[in-house]
Design brief:
The protein has 187 residues and is α+β, with helices and mostly antiparallel strands. It has two domains: 36 residues, no CATH class; 139 residues, L,D-transpeptidase catalytic domain-like. It has three helices and ten strands, in the order ααβββββββββαβ. It has a five-stranded mixed β-sheet with strand order 3-2-1-10-4. Strands 6-5-7-8-9 form a five-stranded mixed β-sheet. It is globular and about 55 Å long. The chain starts with 9 loop residues before the first helix and ends with a strand.
Length: 187
């Protein structure tokens, strides 16, 4: 329970409560901005087939239905040396609870991380440990080993080649796209 002293002026109490409510909404929804909160929860009235356009230069992904723009998302794509592939693709796999088979961490028998941020192809496994793949919720694979999914957004390209998105946007793209949905990745 949160307590606001009675000595606070009424206007200050109201302002504080309003800010706490807004902060609570962002925490509960997973939206990072008011725009994310509003545009993610707008009903979709457009009919037709979906398509996805990813703009690497702008760090932006757009979701269309029958050429109508229905969602725009901030993204984080592949960093230098781990570039996101450019071209025309199609969604080849949908997995709501996907885990990486390459990147993650080694954990001990009780599940505690022993070595983090590992590449299973390069980092040797410590004794008595096992690999735990990085969580990639709402995964839409568009090229083998590359996909859109929920993930951390530092504001610049930082992934191993996948397209990271905020939780609610990843969920919206995931729920709209089907296997076979066209995905264009532009420079």
């Amino acid at each position: 329970m949160f307590y606001i002293p009675a000595s606070f002026p009424t206007i200050a109490r109201t302002f504080l409560l309003l800010n706490l409510m807004i902060a609570g909404i962002f925490c509960l929804t997973g939206c990072g901005t008011v725009t994310d909160l509003v545009t993610t929860n707008v009903p979709d009235y457009h009919k037709g087939k979906a398509s996805i356009v990813i703009r690497l230069r702008d760090q932006q992904a757009c979701l269309y239905k029958a050429k109508n723009l229905i969602a725009v998302s901030r993204i984080s794509t592949g960093r230098e040396g781990h570039n996101t592939p450019v071209g025309h693709f199609k969604v080849i796999l949908k997995d709501e609870h996907h885990h990486s088979s390459v990147y993650g961490y080694y954990a001990n028998e009780s599940g505690q991380p022993v070595k983090e941020n590992i590449d299973i192809r390069k980092d040797p496994k410590p004794p008595y440990s096992h690999f735990v793949g990085a969580s990639m919720p709402f995964f839409l694979e568009f090229s083998p080993g590359y996909g859109l999914h929920q993930g951390y957004l530092p504001g610049f390209p930082a992934s191993h080649g996948c397209v990271r998105m905020p939780y609610w946007k990843a969920r919206q793209f995931y729920e709209t796209a089907k296997v076979g949905t066209p995905v264009t990745v532009a420079p």
